[in-house]
User: Fold this.
Amino acid sequence: MNRLGNASSPYLLQHRDNPVHWWEWGPEALAEAKRQNKPVLISIGYAACHWCHVMAHESFEDPDVAAVMNELYVNIKVDREERPDVDHVYMSALHLLGEQGGWPLTMFLTPEGEPFWGGTYFPKEPKFGRPGFVQVLNEISRLYHAEPERILKNRDTLKAHLAKGAESDGGTLGLADLDRMGLRLSELIDTQHGGLQGAPKFPNPPILEYLLRYAHRTNDTDARARFLLTMEQMALGGIRDHLGGGFARYSVDERWLVPHFEKMLYDNAQLLELYALAYAETGRALFKDAAEGIVLWLKREMVTPEGAFASSLDADSEGEEGRFYVWSLSEIREVLGEEDAAFFAKVYDITDEGNFEGHNIPNRLITGEAPAPVEERLAIMRAKLLERRASRVRPGLDDKVLADWNGLMIASLVRAALLLDHPEWIDFAGRAYRFISDSMSRDGRLGHSWREGSLIFPGFALDHAALMRAALALHEAANDASYLRDAETWRDVLLDEFMIGDSGCLAMTAKSADPLVVRPQPTHDEAVPNANGVFAEALVRLAQITETESNHRRATQILDQLVGIARSSPLGHTSILNALDLHLRGLSILVTGDDAEALHAAALRVPYLDRSVRLLRSGEMLDENHPAKALASSSMNTQALVCAGQRCSLPVSTPDALAVQVKEMLTS
Assistant:
């Protein structure tokens, strides 16, 4: 019996009609495996995953393959976005087996949930140098029953390695160390196309943020140029949806032309704030357009009826990856007419032959901004083509609401709104935040995934860390004390439910959650920044906003522990290093007075890499240890003070004077 019919995950629902007797992840499935003395086959994927669809069509929809699976195994289907903890444990096991990761993840477990062998995509018949799936099923089952000692040896080895948490080497990092690492990173950037050298190319937002932070600290013009080159090439390339806005997951080639066409909320959240920073650096319309395009896409396609943000758009439509997004020159002529089509084709690399397997992926060949009349003409053409594209069969939407990915997008919307003069984005972000804080929390703790009233609870470390950071961004922009209280609530949950005392790191799962074979404690950034890095940044910002001794001490203690882990693999831990940079050189801007809107707005326009902002109103008190307490006017005059550590500037009263003071404090 297939048990996925009542699942909330769109990915699991895609498999509810398979002849495979799928179970959802849970103790019931493992108990069934024990009862029948069968190994477990766990298949992990997500709704926008192309090769997940391929394996499903080839094998899981085939009655003969399903019959073998049902006879030999208890079969569990998992949505990795819904259960990132389960995915992390078994993907880590696959890596320990020496295999490259990816999805679908296909792992074989004991009835206790212990992994002993696995892979990713298995073709139905032998090809690509891989054995056929039925061959694998039969051989693993034979080994499980006939040679249990081999299974147990693999199991014990994997469990021993999985149980090891990240270890600190006890070392420290200072600005000189961050600069040395930044220079090394700059040397790894592709000087022709941007991004890290080679293919495939991923945006890697935490790494790009680290590169820009390094350029700011050292005034390294080469590093700054390489950051801007990367942002430019992505904005021009096929990885960007030039018609509908937003960015695809990654590019399979080295020049950002051919994307893996799925669109993920988390990628676009991280890129939105980076494009706002790139615009603040340069004033280039290209960067502002890319940022605004992300938000237009978000509003048009990704907002749920409750006001939160859906997870992803599929890569496939009509059984073919990218079909929704590619064009023929003849169809463009049909929509635009000969003259406009010829002009559009020249700008966006459209030919009769196509630039990708006989099709065309729009990518912009002209690197500089065109004159305003030309851009207006192109905008009209893009709108016509977008209207035509809307008549095609759309890729599937995964409309589940994930607290962590929403938290990333909420903070990014606020940050970008302040740099791009879009105050309406703050309200847009606030609506999503309210849904999550109201409908996805219980007793002060967050759930992880919500869909149609079904909530996966408790949530994970990144859910709470991302919402803590989002709450602080909203508090800075809106000066609403409820956001600050929420941030402190999420902080306390992370310290009480997720912090591992021995390591000083966050576990992925709450101590009250159902146990897995091991309790994962990852520290590396992956497609999303790691919870430890996000939490560290949020702690630093909370300390800079409140300037309380306890918040500063906590941020310092946690960063001291985390940098000892990050030292061994800096590029894998750039979210932690970014938090350290903010801690060591970030400014705390205090604005006072009941008529301080202009000064407050000027403080918020300072890019978020360099500052945290607090607006103090009449009746509010500074902490006794606040470095500006002696300088802040008791009469609450309208003024701003810029503090770095325990050193504060003299009060200033105009936006221009504040800008000068910020520049002086950052360079001193």
Q: What stands out?
A: The radius of gyration is 26 Å.
